Amino acid sequence: MLADSPRSHSPSVAELRRLVGRLDGIDDGHRRTALPFGIPAIDQRLGGGLATSVLHEATGETPTPGDEAAATAFVASLATRLATAPVLWVGRQRELHAPGIAQLGLHPDRLIRVDARDDAAVLAAMEEALRHGGLSAVVGEIARAGMTATRRLQLAVEARSVTALLLRRHRAADAPFAEPSAAFSRWSLAALPSLPLPVGGVGRPRWRLTLVRQRGGEGDQWIVEGCDATGRIALAADAGDRADRPRIAGRRAA
């Protein structure tokens, strides 16, 4: 038998596990940390919670102000719960309502706002901030960002273990998620009517939260109540885990 036979070069079980781990977002046996939503149905679908130190994307289901606001609030809620250090928020227009963001728990003393002239400048500022470190999250408002741009962001994320959040705006002719992306997950938000209160007033916001895509897993959909003052969402009281609720199928990604 020759010394360099195929059998002698077969990868070990440990090597195969490391390879599979890298494909599923696990590096050399160290699973990524997760940010639990505290909602069992969502956390189970995500394998424990939202993966940190990766790139995630969110968008409004439609370009209506309500859906766009829901997507903004959702991203702000994630940034709030990640904010052990300052959060950098990069955008093209001065649309961010600071008092509203503060009501979600992301206070001005933890928020750094950067105005950029176009999508390319947003991406450049995000990448530089991610590679610099010292931040808990970097948020970018953008219309277009293809696979190459999002891969660059993911590489920058991995360099400093900072979570990146892309808020996709309906400014381009194509739908926000029309382009492929290296994002670990993609989320869509739609504003729904609030539940009536027993007294006069406006009830807690309600959203249709859709996990459009996640790496190594399937999508899903839930009706949730919008963020409280700590950036946490809740399963809507009238939603439960109904068997007839919409399901998102066929969205598994490597």
Summarize the structure.
The chain has 254 residues and is an alpha/beta fold. It has helices at residues 13-23, 40-45, 65-82, 98-103, 119-132, 147-160; strands at 26-27, 30-31, 34-35, 50-51, 55-60, 87-91, 111-115, 137-142, 163-168, 185-192, 206-215, 220-225, 234-235, 252-253. It has one domain: P-loop containing nucleotide triphosphate hydrolases (Rossmann fold), CATH 3.40.50.300.
Salient structural properties:
single chain; 254 residues; alpha/beta; Rossmann fold; ten-stranded mixed sheet; disordered C terminus
Q: Helices and strands in order, then pairings?
A:
Layout: H1 13-23, E1 26-27, E2 30-31, E3 34-35, H2 40-45, E4 50-51, E5 55-60, H3 65-82, E6 87-91, H4 98-103, E7 111-115, H5 119-132, E8 137-142, H6 147-160, E9 163-168, E10 185-192, E11 206-215, E12 220-225, E13 234-235, E14 252-253
Parallel strand pairs: 5-9, 5-10, 6-7, 6-8, 8-9, 11-14
Antiparallel strand pairs: 1-2, 3-4, 10-11, 11-12, 12-13
Helix pairs in contact: 5-6
